[in-house]
Amino acid sequence: MPKIIACYKWVADEADIRIDADLSVDLSKAKGKISEYDRNAIEAAVQAAAAMGGQAVGLTFGTAKARQSLKDALSRGLEEAIYINTEEANEADGAATARALAAAIRKTEDVSLVICAEGASDTYQRQTAPRLGALLDLPVITSVTKMEISGNTLTAVRKLEDCLQTVKAQLPAVVAVLPEINGAPIPGLKAVLAAGKKPVTEFSSTDLGVDLKPKSQVTECKGYIMNRKNIILSEGDTADKVKALAAALRKEGVL
Which of 165, 171, 134 is nearest to 51 (CA)? Predict the structure, then answer.
């Protein structure tokens, strides 16, 4: 049975993040959650598995805190999960993360498709899919908003800056999806209860035999202050204000 791997990340909930007066980032009260974009990747894997008659499998790399993600991920339609549990994930960069994920994928039989989000909601570095493709020697398709699978051929629509591009690749392959690919549903109570009975395979970095030493290191993390232009549209009737607003937005490149 072909397996479709959905890679996802356990991140801090941005609603709980606080920026102190010195612009330092306070994560002490932040709860965790599956990255918003990764929820779309999970749903894409579930849909692909249904189309292929395969099995959707979740894959995450994180510290002990990421264990909380397993029930949520499995309640979203995945049939099993793979959890790489190591404190080294705290310092991992894109290169180390990809090495860990690739090592776990190699230990999984019959993988036909690997699906990632275009980027995680905390860093949005857009590195995971390209790095996985390089490590696994598989074709990579990024910025995907639609995909169809027929036999061993994947057809995907990519959203570029000024156009849509349709490409084909032979499976197995790695795909990075944009949120537009689907609407990730909220799991129902029945799905949540069933998730606790689904299988989870746990690996340590030793089990995988992979070097997780990062190639880059975060030295500082600070918030930022947005300087707003405070344009006030107070003159004229409603129609004039709307026209002035549209003109201002066009000037800023928003429209």
Answer: 171
